[in-house]
């Protein structure tokens, strides 16, 4: 009965009308409201003294950007530019510039016009001046001398001078034992023969002392030799060592490359850099020989034979359009 009486009192108390004060009920059974309050968020950037975590370091660029945005608020959403961290590269690592129009067609047409290989450079060029019966170092030395003599000199004149040197004895030791006067008589009438005598003597002395009567096998060392420029060095590396290190640009290559619109340059050195910037590397080996012969026969310095040129309709310099 006591238990029933307690239950009855609780029931009656709970069903009392809403107008009756029931605060006594909550007084007897107080509720702890503190646990229902929202807990403060932890400050991620803070680090207690005893903490082992590394402090968070703010990005200076991010802070500067945030300050800038607070100083200049805008109703529009800020435009975000996403920049790629990867650099764009050309498929060919040795080329980068845009290729000129119709260059492949022009090159193929030059190949067609040169298919008979009957230009002076084909039979009397520097690659035809060495005595192939000699030892490899002597063959390379003769190729170098032929290139040194070739500057401002026609292939026919240069080839004849090399034949005289070979008959005299074209080795490092023998050239050093030859007087300047006699050496000059052997190479006349090549262009600037007096200067070339001096260059040949100085170069031969270097080859004897530093290269055991052979020639350098790098383009860097080749360019250090007296009287050897970029064109000679690149061609010598190709002829003597079979290595392509660049495009040899002489007056023919310089003139024709500008006429066909492949480059817009004023010097052979500029033409070399311009051609190497876009011409595929696998074509560097043949472009000098092709254009030199083409310049000797058709695209001549004076009175070019535009009417017989296969490029007459697409060459920007053609006089036969």
TrEMBL record:
GO cellular component terms listed in the entry, alphabetical order: mitochondrion; nucleus
Localisation per UniProt entry: Nucleus; Mitochondrion
Biased composition (Basic residues): 68-79
BP term (GO), one: nucleotide-excision repair
Gene3D superfamilies: Helix-hairpin-Helix base-excision DNA repair enzymes (C-terminal), Hypothetical protein, domain 2
Top-level taxon of the source organism: Eukaryota
PANTHER family: ENDONUCLEASE III-LIKE PROTEIN 1
Official protein name in the record: Endonuclease III homolog
Source organism of this protein record: Dendroctonus ponderosae
């Amino acid at each position: 009965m006591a238990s029933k009486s307690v239950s009855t009192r609780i029931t009656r108390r709970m069903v009392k009308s809403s107008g009756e004060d029931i605060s006594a009920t909550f007084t007897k059974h107080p509720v702890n409201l503190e646990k229902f309050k929202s807990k403060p968020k932890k400050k991620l950037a803070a680090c207690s003294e005893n903490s082992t975590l590394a402090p968070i370091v703010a990005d200076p660029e991010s802070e500067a950007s945030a300050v800038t945005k607070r100083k200049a608020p805008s109703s529009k959403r800020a435009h975000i530019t996403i920049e790629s961290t990867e650099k764009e590269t050309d498929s060919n690592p040795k080329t980068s510039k845009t290729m000129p129009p119709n260059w492949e067609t022009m090159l193929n047409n030059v190949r067609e016009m040169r298919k008979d290989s009957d230009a002076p450079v084909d039979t009397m060029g520097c690659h035809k001046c060495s005595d192939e019966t000699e030892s490899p170092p002597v063959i390379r030395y003769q190729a170098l001398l032929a290139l040194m003599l070739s500057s401002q000199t026609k292939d026919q004149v240069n080839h004849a001078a090399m034949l005289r040197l070979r008959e005299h004895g074209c080795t490092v030791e023998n050239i050093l034992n030859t007087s300047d006067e006699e050496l000059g008589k052997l190479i006349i009438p090549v262009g600037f023969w007096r200067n070339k005598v001096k260059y040949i003597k100085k170069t031969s002395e270097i080859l004897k002392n530093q290269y055991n009567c052979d020639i350098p096998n790098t383009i860097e060392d080749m360019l250090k030799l007296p009287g050897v420029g970029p064109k000679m060095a690149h061609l010598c590396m190709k002829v003597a060592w079979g290595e392509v290190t660049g495009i040899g640009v002489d007056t023919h290559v310089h003139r024709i490359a500008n006429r066909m619109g492949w480059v817009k340059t004023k010097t052979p050195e500029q033409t070399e850099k311009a051609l190497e910037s876009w011409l595929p590397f696998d074509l560097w080996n043949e472009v000098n020989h092709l254009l030199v012969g083409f310049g000797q026969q058709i695209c001549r310095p004076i009175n070019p034979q535009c009417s017989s040129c296969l490029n007459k309709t697409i060459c920007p310099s053609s006089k036969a359009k």
